């Protein structure tokens, strides 16, 4: 087939309509090996869209095709097959869609913007801030929910004032990455660059904890003594890591992990001589253990269930993941709990429920969260 490339668009025949089965998805080339697109057939209609999830770049062809949407195989983000709009978290951006024409002879012809093929993601249309609109929407908390709320307001046409208030010193970042990379930096894991907020008229107030709320007067009290008036407010302050009420739990070098500063504190406490105990065998605990392994003297995971991830993934899969860890030298103490933490100012050992003790000069608590 003759492919035409004119200026900002690429156009060409990518396949036959009969090549794609009903409810089928296939990656095809448009014009060259570099330009890949995902072709989807549903209810006899053919759509063309970006091949990668906008979250971490997973191949959507391996995902699940539902009614009018494809769900990413890695973390479950959903995209509308006709518009490319993101319809379910995680991820912020939509994916591009391309013009499709089926010729009388059954060829599928696709026309795509070159910039879309390169970027593989796009931002939904955002409303501009209108200085004459006196409505103020205040968002408390800068996690994924707070940021998505701010973006969604603009995407749904809200032109009033949007103010994002956070106790953090950083703009919204991808908290999920902290347990995978305790040495993360704010610029590497930020969800949007600083310029994004300016461009879309989203005001940010960092290092500004909210301390009180007067719903009658519609005022939010801030830690610096100021008050912020609002028309509407969204409270998305998230949860607090669980710290068990055990003897010695407040010794130094016993950490929970929620913020970037927490991650840095743990990372700075690690050395090649460290004997690290991770309490909790689900995602945060196991990911922190994986990060520490190979950087320290010893890593032990203490968990109350028979295998890691028992509650979320079940015995069989949890057991296989556990073996991956023990093969790499991580010690698993399962069906066990910690009775107390011992040390003089700083933790030096732990006592387990069976009465045995174990050296520990860094403890990471991965025991879920509370409100």
Beta strand %: 25-35%
Secondary-structure content class = alpha/beta
Query: Using DSSP, what is the number of strands?
Result: 28
User: How far apart lie the N and C ends?
Assistant: 60 Å
By CATH, the architecture of the largest domain is named 3-Layer(bba) Sandwich
Write out the CATH superfamily name of the largest domain: FAD/NAD(P)-binding domain
Mass-distribution shape = flat
Helix fraction?
10-25%
Biggest sheet details: 7 strands, antiparallel
Count of the domains: 3
CATH class of the largest domain: Alpha Beta
CATH topology of the largest domain: FAD/NAD(P)-binding domain
Counting DSSP H or I runs of 4 or more residues, the number of helices is 7
Strand order of the largest sheet: 1-2-11-10-5-4-3
Describe the structure.
The chain has helices at 114-119, 144-155, 186-189, 194-199, 260-269, 283-292, 310-327, and strands at 4-6, 9-16, 24-30, 32-42, 45-49, 64-65, 69-71, 78-80, 86-88, 97-102, 107-113, 136-140, 161-165, 202-205, 210-214, 219-222, 227-229, 232-235, 240-241, 254-256, 275-279, 298-302, 331-333, 338-344, 346-352, 357-359, 362-365, 369-370. It has 7 helices and 28 strands. It has 3 domains: 4-119, Rieske Iron-sulfur Protein, CATH 2.102.10; 136-235, 3-Layer(bba) Sandwich (FAD/NAD(P)-binding domain); 254-370, FAD/NAD(P)-binding domain. With 371 residues, the chain is an alpha/beta fold. Strands 1-2-11-10-5-4-3 form a 7-stranded antiparallel β-sheet. The protein has a 5-stranded parallel β-sheet with strand order 20-27-21-22-23. It has a 4-stranded antiparallel β-sheet with strand order 6-7-8-9, with no helix packed on it. The relative contact order is 0.09.
